[in-house]
Amino acid sequence: MSPFTRRDFLKASLSTTAAAGVAAPLAMRGNAQAADNTRPPNLVFIFSDQMRGMDMGCAGNAQVHTPNMDRLAAQGTRLTHCYANAPVCTPCRGMLLTGNYPLTNKVLANDLPIPEDADSIGKCLQSAGYRTGYVGKWHLDGVPRDRFTPPGPRRQGFDYWAVWNCSHNYNDAFIYRDEPEPIPLEKFEPEAHTDLTLDFINDTDERPFAMFLSWGPPHDPYYMVPERYSSQYDPDSIELRPNVPADADPFNPERPISPRDRELGIKGMVAAYYAHITALDEQLGRIMDALEEKGLADNTILIYTSDHGDMLWSQGMVKKQQPWEESVNIPFLIRWPGHIEAGATSDMLFSVADMSPTLQGLMGVEPGAPMEGRDLSPAFLGEDIPTPDSVFLMDMMPSDEAAAQNLQEWRGIRTARYTYARFRDATPWVLYDNDADPYQLNNLAEDPAHEDLLRDCEAKLQAWLDRTGDAFLSGREHIEALGLAGLWGDRMEALGGARPDWT
User: What is the mean pLDDT of residues 120-147?
Assistant: First the structure.
């Protein structure tokens, strides 16, 4: 079936379902829903925070225990070349919801709020008759980070709401529902978030549903993981990636790490990071089991991904906002039985900016406005279509961890084979042949033998800059041009810094 015919079919199905509302008798609920192949698909979109794409058993890392991620990969398709365009939390979340790059959606840096009038996937699904839900970390409502997001436009189309704007205290966590009183979570945060997600899935409402679940780990603090998971990993047995320098110093003051994490040492931090992933894997298994037990698995698009990765001392660096694979490459597992190939691995280039248009394409939902990301749903459904030859990468405002590590604004691309990034003054920063050099140990940026390759990569980058209207200004200049200076000043004050005089 062509994508246009299929979209019309699903759109008609959605209209019928929405018109029916919740009037179906109780006897028709549950498994009867799943047996109806004319129903639009449900969506369960799960994403963690700061998880690298290479850290799953199915991705080749035998050190980390991920039986349920491996099960999901075996039942669906795993993308090896999925990338965070702007590898830091808030900008990636803005791109995920809108399908647009930061200069369009105005989410350039952490803690800048997404505009209330954004055309988000939540609003589109809600308008199409879906029951929508969001659970977990939001990080799209500005400052303070414990801010209550009331029902209305700031929730971007999500009805069921169990959210905290931003915190990484996994042992003493809270959520807001529809009242401005924080509700304590009485258990490890990802487990409590999964409980709330299962409550949403188990609702007897007859409409198709779309749930976005955002877990906080494996984002640091790494030490904050229950012993039942950390005991599965012996730090002394951890093999570090070959691009972790032998002289990397966990006490380097330029590397922003919490004191308790520093005490773990580098191998201890990696072990704790893996333990967090195993904890998430267990929660993913609970959701997979629940969908199967309710008979919903066959008509539910299930996705596991992340907003960005974590350097974890590769290249001697930590955390994100950097162009190396550990920071930008993220997991992407997708299952939709009978529609998306099972047990497959794809090297198609795919990015966070492409997720919203692709999901809406898969679900037959018309977007609210044009999006800059690409709808690659036909490729997921097995159609032979042209796919991207590069992904646009960037850090528009090198704040927080980037500033602490003396990083500048940069732009770059990832092709199927090469990584290229440069600074504003056109100075090449990195150029890697990832096929010949998978750990990115040999920077070709200043090698005269690769001038032709450098020019080709720069031409691709320039095409992205032109396409997105990116003049590659300084972060401050972009913020001022978009009228965000006041919000940036509020952000800096709220996070304990000095308010810049230009705000």
Answer: 98
The catalytic site residues sit at 89, 139
Residue 305, strand partner residues? 47, 332
Place of tokens 């298994």: 285
- Using the predicted structure, report yes or no on whether residue 10 has a pLDDT greater than 80: no
Per-residue pLDDT averaged across 455-483, rounded? 98
- What DSSP line would sit under 22-83, residue for residue? T-S-GGGSTHHHHH-TTSPPEEEEEEEES--TT-SGGGT-TTS--HHHHHHHHHSEEESSEE
Number of Cβ atoms within 10 Å of the Cβ of 58: 17
At 156 the pLDDT is 98
- Strands 332-335 and 77-79, by their bridges, are antiparallel
Task: State how far the Cα of 164 lies from the Cα of 159, in Å rounded to an integer.
Answer: 15
Confirm whether pTM is higher than 0.85.
Answer: yes
d(CA 352, CA 334): 14
pLDDT confidence band for 33 (50 / 70 / 90): very low
Torsion of CA 73, 79, 85, 86, to 10 degrees: 30
Task: Provide the residue type at 85 as one letter.
Answer: N
361 with 375: CB under 8 angstroms?
Answer: yes
pLDDT in tens, 305-353: 999 999 999 999 999 999 999 999 999 999 999 999 999 999 999 999 9
- The type of residue at 340 is I
* Nearest Cα residue to 155 out of 140, 144, 173: 140
Taking each helix axis from N to C end, the angle separating 3-20 and 352-363, rounded to the nearest 10 degrees, works out to: 70
Whether 21 shows a pLDDT value over 50: the answer reads no
Cα atoms in the 13 Å half-sphere on the side-chain side of 236: 0
- Give the integer Cα–Cα distance in Å for 265 and 312: 11
Instruction: Record the tokens describing residue 201, joined without a space.
Output: 């899935």
Q: How many CB atoms lie within 10 A of CB 427?
A: 11
Q: Return the half-sphere exposure (C-beta side, CA atoms, 13 A cut-off) of residue 334.
A: 23
Q: How far apart are CA 50 and CA 311, in angstroms?
A: 9
